Amino acid sequence: MAIIAEKGVALVTGASQGIGRAIALRLASDGFDVALNDIPACEAMLATAAEEVAARGRRAHCILADVSNDQQVETMVFDVVRVLGGLDVMVANAGISMMKSIFDMSTFSGTFLCYKYAGKQMMAQGRGGRIIGACSGTGKQGQASLSAYSASKFGIRALTQCAALEFGKYRITVNAYAPGPVKTPMWDDLEVGIGTPPGVLEDQLSKTAAVGYVGVPNDIAALVSFLASKESHLLTGQAISIDGGRHFD
Ligand code: NAD
């Protein structure tokens, strides 16, 4: 049996870039061993992120898997436990670009499968746990042209509440982060989708935030750091807005 880091083992999906990568590195700095997942097309970037986890003195393990595939998520969780010795924190971060059709709802199914298999594993371990999902401002307020994305993020809020109720008695908390605009590769896709020149969207969105600017991945990672900690035990079933003051619950 592997020797588990004092803080435990975290699995972060969609960890090769953007918010997921920042979360993986932050959790490594916090003292977690970290399993990093992404799709095969991102293998090289995932390996680089894993090297940065290792540079923080923690064990890193890469898993190539599609989180919208039931079998692959089950195998992924099994693999994390086999290699790193358990699972204490699941961050179901992976998401697809917002400009997708209504037929592509893998964001929701991927989150559902991650909650399901992480919850099963954490219950079996009997030492509690933290399950954390990626919601969005569009999971609180619908937006034109983002129907599939927005509906999937509303769904993640519902899933987070239901899982929190079901898993609470096992000392497993379930929460989500709900960012406003954050500068990541997903953002670049959005600019292309909308057809705005680089910089214009950032200017427009900055004006709609109370603080007057948009977020960066490390801002979200800092919130996840708290959600993953032991100190957050009383917080569950929430989708926490982190958007510089754009939406007030
Ligand atoms: P990103 O596109 O930069 O990174 C997402 C990562 O997820 C990619 O590496 C991608 O390959 C991976 N991924 C996609 N589908 C996958 C699958 N089926 N299996 C495994 N990996 C998969 O995105 P980001 O901006 O870092 O967003 C991360 C999360 O935060 C997403 O869930 C997104 O919806 C949410 N979010 C982002 C923003 C933003 O403005 N960037 C705002 C609100 C919410």
UniProtKB/TrEMBL annotation:
<dbReference type="InterPro" id="IPR002347">
    <property type="entry name" value="SDR_fam"/>
</dbReference>
<dbReference type="InterPro" id="IPR036291">
    <property type="entry name" value="NAD(P)-bd_dom_sf"/>
</dbReference>
<dbReference type="InterPro" id="IPR020904">
    <property type="entry name" value="Sc_DH/Rdtase_CS"/>
</dbReference>
<dbReference type="GO" id="GO:0016616">
    <property type="term" value="F:oxidoreductase activity, acting on the CH-OH group of donors, NAD or NADP as acceptor"/>
</dbReference>
<dbReference type="Pfam" id="PF00106">
    <property type="entry name" value="adh_short"/>
</dbReference>
<comment type="similarity">
    <text>Belongs to the short-chain dehydrogenases/reductases (SDR) family.</text>
</comment>
<dbReference type="GO" id="GO:0006633">
    <property type="term" value="P:fatty acid biosynthetic process"/>
</dbReference>
<dbReference type="GO" id="GO:0048038">
    <property type="term" value="F:quinone binding"/>
</dbReference>
<keyword id="KW-0521">NADP</keyword>
<protein>
    <recommendedName>
        <fullName>NAD(P)-binding protein</fullName>
    </recommendedName>
</protein>
